[in-house]
Amino acid sequence: MGLYFRTPQLGWAVGSGGAIVKTVDGGKKWQKVISGTTATLSGVFFLDEKQGWAIGANGTIRRSQDGGQTWQQQFVDTQVPFYGLSFVSSSEGWVVGGNGTILHTKDGGAHWADQASKTSAALYAVQFLTAQHGTAVGAVGTVLMTDDGGVTWTPQETQGAVTLFDVYFSDASTGWVVGNAGAIFHTIDGGNHWIDRTLPCNRTCTKLTDLLRVRFTDPQSGWIVGERGMVYRTTDSGFTWTEQGAVATVSLFGLSFPDGTQGWASGEKGTIVRLSPSH
Questions:
Q1: How far apart, in whole angstroms, are the C-alpha atoms of residue 154 and residue 130?
Q2: How far apart, in whole angstroms, are the C-alpha atoms of residue 110 and residue 17?
Q3: Rounded mean pLDDT of 215-225?
Q4: Which of 88, 127, 130, 138 has the highest local Cβ count within 10 Å?
Q5: Across residues 234-239, what is the average pLDDT?
Q6: How confident is the model over 232-236, as a mean pLDDT?
Q7: Tens digit of pLDDT for each residue in 96-118?
Q8: Which of 90, 116, 87 shows the shortest CA–CA distance to 101?
């Protein structure tokens, strides 16, 4: 379901039944590791080669300090599913999930405190560029932004009730959110205004594809993955998106680029696909 590559060689992926796998050779071989949970895991992030976190259903947060070989449970006072996470240091991070939940830690996850999102919409993704500046997105067009580390979260106007599945800012002013039915919104002023860049439905399309993950490798080059294995790419800062076709038959929920030349997408049924600019 989710994956994260720290370098082109070193990556981790997580999924159903508490599955966690690791590669040290750029995805040629994947080693299964014991996660200590059977909960479905939706996201994974490593700050460096040793320290990482995995999140998922039933309020699951697990931490590794040895590169994902062993995992320890982190205790939180909720059973909501977690969908997104973002860490800015080994001590400070955030997770988001069902029912508008936003949790914050300042001690690497030993303790988690609730932050007031003022929404009950499910939140599917969160990104902090700095310890102060973060964005969370979710159901019914929800975009929340903070400039004070999440002490206060402010809703932004996106002009739509679409479900938003991911957010990615390449710098403090330029950001993207993607969601269901081809929804793409773009900001160039730090989220004060959002421009609708939703993909048009071409002649062959019977149903607009849900867009699940967006990442940029530099200000011009970006990738989006979505349902039914669809991949889209831009080389002009997102003004036009080119359909690259399906790289898998399943929906892709994970997208990670350790450098500008290659990336990986992950999805249902343990699918992991390598992406390169030649796609």
A1: 17
A2: 24
A3: 94
A4: 138
A5: 91
A6: 94
A7: 999 999 999 999 999 999 999 99
A8: 116
CA distances 136 to 100, 122, 238, Å, are 10, 10, 20
Residue type, 277: P
Partners of 178 in beta bridges: 166, 184
Rounded mean pLDDT of the chain?
94
Read off the DSSP letter of residue 27: T
Angle at 6 between CA 235 and CA 275, to 5 degrees: 40
- The phi-psi region of residue 97 (left if phi > 0; otherwise alpha if psi is between -120 and 50; otherwise beta) is beta
The alpha carbon of 241 is separated from its chain's Cα centroid by a whole number of angstroms, namely 20
Q: Cβ(231)–Cβ(271) under 8 Å?
A: no
Cα separation of 119 and 65, whole Å?
Answer: 33
pTM of the complete model: 0.95
Residue 205 has pLDDT above 90, yes or no: no
Q: Which of 151, 150, 95 is nearest to 123 (CA)?
A: 95
67 Rama sector, left if φ>0, alpha if ψ -120 to 50, beta otherwise: left
197-201: Cβ within 8 A, 24+ apart: 197/238, 197/239, 197/241, 199/232, 199/241
- Do 81 and 132 meet the contact criterion of CB atoms below 8 Å apart? no
